[in-house]
Amino acid sequence: MGPVDIVIENNRIARVVSVGNPQVPIRDSRRPAPGDHEIDAHGMYVLPGLVNAHAHVAFPLQGIAGEVPDAEYVFKLWLGHGITTVREVGSFTALDEAAKRDLETACHHAQLAVSRMNVLDTSGWGLTSMEHWYGLPEALFADRTIQDYPANYNYNDEQHRFGAAGRLWEQAAPPGSARWRAVLDTLVARNFTLCPTLTIYEASRDLMRAMRAEWHDDYTLPTLWRWYAPSREAHGSYWFHWTTADEIAWKHNYQRWMTFLNDFKNRGGRVVTGEDAGFIYKLFGFAYVRELELLQEAGFHPLEVVRAASLNGAEVLGMADEIGSVEVGKRADLLIVEENPLANFKVLYGTGALRLDDATGEVVRVGAVRWTVKDGIVYDAPALLADVRRIVAEAKAREAQETPED
Predict the structure, then answer these.
(1) For the chain, how many helices (H) and strands (E)?
(2) 32 vs 269, higher pLDDT
(3) Bridge-partner residues for 12, per DSSP?
(4) Peptide bond just before 3 cis, omega within 30 deg
(5) What DSSP string describes 288-340?
(6) pLDDT in tens, 128-140
(7) What angle do CA 291, 295, 299 make, to 5 degrees?
(8) Is the dihedral of CA 178, 180, 182, 188 positive or negative?
(9) Does the CA dihedral 342-344-349-351 come out positive or negative?
(10) Beta-ladder partners of 373
(11) Were both Cys, which of 76, 120, 242, 341 would link to 384 (CB 3.0–4.6 Å)?
(12) Residue 130 and residue 269: Cα distance in Å, rounded?
């Protein structure tokens, strides 16, 4: 809706005032009194601050001297993409203790455990959300109880781990089957939440796309780049001999997985957006925007995608009364962008989206978040991303100086 004026007092949304109609002059008589600070967002789009429901602020990069990305680097990438709330999933509590403290819970069901407890088990025990998709296909098994692992499978071999995972959904009950419907209905009835992190596995179905994403050159730290490269020790660096067959298997995996997500959403199930960035050629912030695109690929309407990224994320955190929508009384967590993301989610990328300017015939970049507002504090998103580019450039320069010449 619009045009509107949004009045923020301290860190709260105080008023959302309709000030006219589209394509006619704004009526000054309807406008609130001038504020101490005003943002002229005429013609722009305002969304609730985005919720990253699966995030890692810092983690040791195994195999490269235990280095970690600096928090400044990570937070600026997030804020520069309009992400105002993150759920750090590196904390561990037992389910019974979380229930006593009225805490929401999440779980990455490890492949080592899914034959003993899948998502039907854990959701019945009180788990409120699941990460990725491990434990879900296993709940859909109708003619087996354990995945068809090859005889030489070794979980510590990352290519075995991810190669076998790419052949899992085809072993589950097919869409529309009795088992498929029963699992859907059970999870919806339990008010369960799915946080799929579709983006983090995308290199499995198209390695070249993830590896050569245009933002790597300016925004990816050299330490991260080394972490992504094929390695027997680094998690998610499983490109020892990644084949066409592996990518095709993962493409089929995505088709079944996306169908389940869309069916779950259509039955009233809650789906949220998380990126799990810092692994497998996925960069903070940029990976989150890609998650929005992948949910649309799964069949979500763009408005359903935005709801997954905002209000649904607030609900899974138990914070829907504070964040997740542009409403009077809620925290002033907003993002402001010049282009309409419902028409093209690519305009949320820090690098913007490519477009041909019909007036000049030139290819131009449009979009990218202009301002991010967190708790009423206004951040210049392009300036944040410029800082990230500086951090990366300085890191590369230091490494160049430290590397001895041949």
Answers:
(1) 15, 14
(2) 269
(3) 9, 331
(4) yes
(5) HHHHHHHHHHTT--HHHHHHHHTHHHHHHTT-TTTSSS--TTSB--EEEESS-
(6) 999 999 999 999 9
(7) 165
(8) negative
(9) negative
(10) 334, 378
(11) 76
(12) 13
Q: Strand 12-18 vs strand 270-271: parallel, antiparallel, or unpaired?
A: unpaired
Residue 208 has which token pair? Answer: 């070249």
CA 150 distance to own-chain centroid: 32
Q: Beta strand 12-18 with 4-9: parallel, antiparallel or unpaired?
A: antiparallel
Average of per-residue pLDDT values in the chain: 93
Estimate to the nearest angstrom the gap between the alpha carbon of 399 and the chain centroid: 30
Residues 105 and 127: beta-carbon distance below 8 Å: yes
d(CA 181, CA 122): 18
Q: Are 362 and 54 in contact (CB under 8 A)?
A: no
Task: Give the closest residue to 221 by CA, choosing from 160, 313, 267, 284.
Answer: 284
Q: Which of 70, 82, 41 is nearest to 382 (CA)?
A: 82
Whole-number pLDDT of residue 140 = 97
Domain range list for the chain? 1-38, 45-333+377-402
Which residue in this structure is represented by tokens 């009384």? 329
Dist. CA 174–CA 179, nearest whole Å:
8
Dihedral, CA atoms, 383, 388, 390, 391, nearest 10 degrees? Answer: 140
User: Which two tokens mark 86?
Assistant: 């993150």
Prediction pTM value: 0.95
CA distances from 390 to 76, 397, 403 (A): 12, 10, 20
